[in-house]
Amino acid sequence: MTTSNSTRPKRIVVAMTGATGAIYAVRLLQILRELEVETHLVLSHWAEETIKYETDYKPADVRKMADHSYNVSDQYAPISSGSFKHDGMIIVPCSMKTLAAVRVGYGDDLVARAADVCLKERRKLVLVARETPLSDIHLDNMLSLTRSGAIIFPPVPAFYTRPTSLDDIVNQSVGRMLDMFGLECEGLFERWSGAQKKSSSE
Question: What's the whole-model pTM score?
Fold first, then answer.
């Protein structure tokens, strides 16, 4: 018998739902490819509609950014089983409907099932929750998932970087998402290094 802990590539499951913010997932997939991370992608029906509405990409274009892509109804997909090894999952953006399904273990599609697998296998699960304002139901679901080991990650922009474009804002949030998996794309965004005093002439 042979054992192998380091021969397989780094693998991340990326799921997209219908909440606004498709560009976060697009940018994440682009950077994960640059980092040579193997990606397994699932798009919900409404994620496909949001991609078309919010970006210049087609769903087929986004699928090509991933190494593997699955139909949201495909419960035979490798990522639906805990025996398929990977290094975590991110749902970006994550709708409140999907968040609620994950919270109660209602794995009626591949997004919710793959997330449920992460929780039961004690793997990293990051939910990029996109909603505002939040009801007590939303907050209760988030608290429950946090207690179950998931990371709730609202894509809140940082303004200490002095962003000058939408790309700057997206890159900063995506860079912090990468941090959750111990990954880094050098130069993607400016990290906080302490307050810099302005000169008296400014």
Answer: 0.92
